[in-house]
Request: fold
Amino acid sequence: MNILTNPNKLRGFEKHIKVENVSRRSILKTLGLAGGFVLAAPVMIRPSFAYETGAGKMPHGVVVDPRVFVSIAPDGIVTIVAHRSEMGTGVRTSLPLIVAEELEADWSRVRVQQAHGDEVKFGNQDTDGSRSTRHYLIPMRQIGASARTMLEQAAAKRWGVPASEVKAVRHEVVHSASGRKLGFGELAADAAKESVPSIEGLKLKNPKDFRYLGKGEIGMVDLHDITTGAARYGADVRLPGMKYAVIARPPVTGGKLVSFDGAEALKVSGVEKVMEVKGWPWPSKFQPLGGVAVIARNTGAAIKGCNALKVTWDDGANAKYDSVAYRAELEAAARKPGLVVRKEGDAETALKSADKVIVGEYYLPHFAHVSMEPPVAVANVKGDKAEIWAPVQSPGGTREDVAKTLGIPEENVTVNVTLLGGGFGRKSKCDFALEAALLSKELGVPVKVQWTREDDVRHDFLHTVSVERIEAGLDKNGKVIAWRHRSVAPSIASTFAAGTVHQAPFELGMGLIDNPFEIANLQCENPEAAAHTRIGWFRSVSNIPRAFAVQSMVAEIAQATNRDPKDMLLELIGSPRIVNLSSVKDPWNYGEPYDSYPIDTARLRKVVELVADKGGWGRSVPKGHGLGIAVHRSFVSYIATIVEVAVDDKGKLTVPRVDTAIDCGTYVNPERIQSQIEGAAIMGLSLAKYGEVTFKDGKVQQGNFDDHPVIRIDEAPAVTNVYIVPPPSPDTPPSGVGEPGVPPFAPALINAIFAATGKRIRAMPIGKQLEA
Amino acid sequence: MVKLKINGQEQNWDGDPDLPLLWFIRDEIGLTGTKFGCGQALCGSCTVIMDKQAVRACVTSVSDASGREVTTIEGLHPAGDHPVQKAWRQLNVPQCGYCQAGQIMQAAALLMDNPKPSHDQIREAMSGNICRCGCYQRIENAVHLASTGV
Reply:
């Protein structure tokens, strides 16, 4: 018996609001391209909590309804729905665990069921922006408490006692006065008949009684399956009669198919058909790029056939994109005034009157996501119905886009979310699922589209490419009196709107206009830059170049004024205070209300001090070693990192030790926080050492792990220590974990390299710069 | 016709003898635990054990496996309790998990060859297997744990 009776009927939530937030897919709406606002689902009201979040402003908002998320079988097995996508953060475990905690369910009797894409039913499902715990800690607690209350009411009725006398404890409801007990399974049918309690009246557990939250003792629900090969990713879906497709796409973004000759491809054993795939004009949003598909009985044959294709392309408007020339363009733009996006005091005049001006210009190239599972999707389209199986971060957005692309109603589209073999933002864009849908529609059979690694690197939605130029003016005492930061980079918005030359507020708000330093004359500018390829969200997004620039600059100033880099950093952060962003037109703040998530320099200072203490800042290190420090607030969390680097006399770089302190507010699973930060150090090192995708004649020059290397185990930091700041109170809002670990890593590394060698790296990747 | 054994079962293939073993395993016989990551023996996601040697199934053709015994992640241990698998769970190694079957097969092959590898030997043996999530610290510790008893 299921306690879910009428999941679409929502009670007790009357407040509707308009979508005005930016999720990685709702950018269309915020740019005004999709025809106005969309009504969000009902948003919950939380009078008993100290904070609000931006959850209700996400597309389709939040649904707090136990009938949608919880079901209990007569044998007592509790099934909890995970409506976010699992790509390694542990979210498929941690959100259901929050429900189980409040429900008083025994985790060993809980099963997790993955939601398909349906945001009317489940609320927003975009697994991006490090939002899941931040937006769902309270709603999931309320869902669990609500279901628990229904079980308690059912037991009280059965026994004819007041509900206040019974209590759910570990999978049963207990009446302690009489010693009676009933298991959750025995109560499920009756509980289903109870009305859903109002949120306002719910009693949540006292955090000191938590069994699971904050402990880190529960492994991921998929852990066993991952170790036996039973875990199912997008690539692992197999349907009867399914065909395998590999696609040749235009080598230049915005290019078009002119003609193709599939004769050689058709000679390959196992190849059955060669056909055109529809493409969309650039900027193509998340729509397919188009090209030629080879359809075969297995993926190997399809790849071989694809390699045998003869295709003529029209390269289009981006055929001259050249990374060397583009870098010079960005540098030129950064040396001229640009659109002023934050202004306090008069930096221009203060720079002129400064005793000393230090200038740093920092270049960061395009990065590719290269999740270990390249994009892949299965589609089965029959008539006006479509079913998709795909590793997507945006199940709801994928459903919308499949419906639009096929011209069928959204309710006719089912999106099944598999495990994601890595995401990092790439799988927020569902172009690969749309390709599968188009091919299945045309062929009338289920189709799996598999991207090769080369497809992945060459047709990614790349991390932007940027020049960050900072000028710091010092008075004669070495105090920083002026700071001008110009950020030039093609915007993610260019993937959606032709002619975009400025960065969007959500990009400016990642380490530029939210600068926390206490400097009287501070100006941020955004000169123009046009895009020549698809730009997209990459784990941590614009925070990577900004933290690299700002935190390198701090160390450069420290060096110029002969001070300790950590002391310099604390001096620039200044007094413990809430940073006043009133001079910024749109501070964005990761979509969160500033009251709940202000820039709190006391917390920023604290992670610096904590990592300096635990990480042994200032300890003596062997010759050729050096320590570097950096701090950055992103996704409303505060993170500081110390890297110890060793550089030998041939310029070979190793990382003996990394220390990171994170303040992410109230947290659910410290063990997964630790794993995310360990991983962020590896990814940060990959980006700093090798990360680079370059263009020549409009084409990406890299393709696989030979010419686009990433860090391997023999180059990984020997140890990464993670220190989690305990939340000051149970009402401290939770903040992001998946992304914020990356930004401070590279500048800490670069500053460590300077300490070890005296060489200041201002352009990524490090590559062979230390060998010179 | 190529004949080979996968996880103890006889398999026949009368298609393209040059077909990479990876696609035979995944698409033709439906054992999807072995993953595709690069197609060029650069990442190790497709690692299987062939006659006690770790090989990359993406560059090993079906005909190369003719008459050989191939073990995939599904065949490593009937209950999934190979010491490497147990160590992986004990230390919560995976994040996304996609590369882990290849990592586990590589580690199992290492321990067959060298039951007590040093940390340097572990790093060297595992350096062909990429993990983009960055679970390396735990992978190294889990291989060590598996070698010392779980």
Observations:
- The CA atoms of residues 143 and 179 of chain A lie 28 Å apart.
- Chain A has a mean pLDDT of 93.
